Amino acid sequence: MRDETMLELLRRQGVSRRGFLKFCAATASMLALPPSMAAAVAEAMATARRPTVIWLSFQECTGCTESLTRSHSPTLESLLFDTISLDYHETLQAAAGTAAEAAREAAMQNAWGNYLVLVDGSIPLKDGGVYATVAGKSNLQTLREVAEGAAAIVSIGTCASYGGLPYAKPNPTGAVPVSEIITDKPIINVPGCPPIPVVMTAVLAHYLTFGTLPELDGLGRPKAFYGESIHERCYRRPFYDRGLFAKSFDDEGARNGWCLFELGCKGPTTHNACATTKWNQGTSFPIQSGHGCLGCSEPDFWDAGGFYNTLSTPITPVTGAATAALAAGAATGLAVTLANRRRKANARRAHPEVTIDDLEK
Amino acid sequence: MSGLGDIGIAVQEPGGDANARAVLREIETLLERLLASGEGGSIDLGGLPLSGADYELLEATLGHGEVSAVIDSLGPTDVIETAIPGVWWLTHCNAAEEVMAEFIEVGWCPQIVLAAQEDVSDGLQRLRAALKEDGNAG
Predict the structure, then answer these.
(1) Which member of A100, A148, A232, A241 has the lowest number of beta carbons within 10 Å of its beta carbon?
(2) Measured between CB atoms, which of B13, B43, B102 is closest to A345?
(3) What is the per-residue pLDDT across B79-121, written as a single tens digit (0 to 9) for each?
(4) What pTM does this model have?
(5) Percentage of the residues of chain A whose pLDDT score is greater than 90
(6) If contacts are CB pairs under 8 Å, which of residues 276-305 in chain A contact chain B?
(7) In CATH, what number is assigned to the domain containing residue B67?
(8) Per the domain annotation, does B1 fall within a domain?
(9) Do residues A198 and A297 both lie within one domain?
(10) Chain B residues with beta carbon closer than 8 angstroms to that of A36
């Protein structure tokens, strides 16, 4: 089973070549690759083999796992999970106690040097790391041990990526992100509190498909999803460009859906895919609900100033020329610079736009 | 639900339909390329911040053409030729009929519609097996 390729697995399940092409097109779309890359995905998938995955939960709240298990294209995810071998995950696995730890050790031994480690949560270092232990071992010890045989590490969530909530001042447990402990393995950060489900699965799909990690930005995040700021993709951006801002949460500007910049929105300095991918089956995201972005996918987001304090400097000058340039850029480049992804189509089908007239019916 | 009108909520769609206009220009370019070189292309609608107004404009401009098909593999895929020949609207759904991906494809015929060699070859073997069973029975 472990040596079966993706294509063989799908054919064994009675999936035709058309189904395979569809799977590849959906995967390319999920990876935010241009549609012309679907053929490359198909070629890679035909030979990709099932990787072993070990998931380590440290100082965390399980929100990342909750988010992942609510991914919204079940066919794709279930196929992906059929295709990876998730050998250890404290919350999801059936085994407990000694049996669970034995499963982890066996998986490590069988795939030494080749398995993928997913970490959620930060790691406490203070007082010898006593503030978080599993099976009598400190998180620090476990991470070092498991990372040694890993091909790569994926830091899931802001805690594992940048320290997150446990790292916030005064950081009572001396929490640090994975990257401050492990320095000799490729690390990919998938921050967010929690990360968008499809971003997590896309990183796994990318590894599964190409056997490599996706292209990363300066903070170790996949560019396909974190390449642009919330502000750049925000549907309220036209109001920012016109200088129309809500000044309080109940004023005329707020009711009219104007830009939330002056109410502390961190959209301009936050890189994530919320504005296009959205949450809850593509229903909405914080700004669409009338609240500014908190900046949860950035380092130090708890200590980066108050959530309701206006960012110190505007990001782009609000001039006629800039606005015109932006509009021209959108017209020529938008359809080809497919940055982030995905679908409001379902939301459109399931949740048509609600107007005041509908509410009063 | 009386009184909501007094509160003065106005639900607006500030995004407009500028993105749909950009997509339509892209389709124009792809059609020109198809006619010139035979090479089409594809646009992933999931990757674009399209508003309700954008979708309305796309649907109104492209319309429904002569061909529609449903591919039943890993859930339904709707293949619809728009009223602009050579422009196809593909909606990939999973078994629960939730949309997984949505594309506008420009080409003579979407590749996913064509039968694939290995499926044809599998089918031929199944046909031969069936004929053999019939032969034995007769």
Answers:
(1) A148
(2) B102
(3) 999 999 999 999 998 877 878 889 999 999 998 999 988 889 9
(4) 0.73
(5) 44
(6) 276, 281
(7) 3.30.1370.140
(8) no
(9) no
(10) 41-42
